[in-house]
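Summary for the lay section of the report: proteins are chains of building blocks that fold into shapes. Here we show the chain for SH3-like domain-containing protein and then a coded description of the shape we predicted for it.
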Amino acid sequence: MVRVFSIIVAAALCALVSPASAQDREVPYWASIRADEVNMRVGPAGTYRIAWVYKRRDLPVKVLRIKEGWRLIEDPDGEQGWMVARFLKRERTAIVTGEELVEMRAEPDAAARLLWKVEPGAVGLLGDCEAGWCSFDVGGNRGFAPADRLWGASEAP
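The coded shape description reads as follows.
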């Protein structure tokens, strides 16, 4: 009985502490959009005007500020606005930038075997980045891409 009571008390304390500690997260940090459709507003409340409607799950964003349940974000085009925190996830993604196709290599080296080419605007899961190359997964196709062609790949946004 004491053990059950202890578990209930611990769960209640976690519920009280977690939201506050989530507000202490250091910014800026990378996140990605969790939903298929989400609004970006001009201020941190549902009463503010909608600036953009995003219809791209996994799009990488920079979180610049935290205010209660809202996050001030910047998208790959440099647009800034407020988004409800629950529509963001900490999973790192990146988007291919530039005008040309980016070459995905078998190893993190420009001389490594070419696996395929990815179009600008493609979004994928970002793995580890080192020495100018990042592990990148676009729809289950994995390889290495130059970090300077991936928005969302820098260590400190």
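Put simply, here is one thing we learned. Residues 34 and 46 are 18 Å apart (CA to CA).
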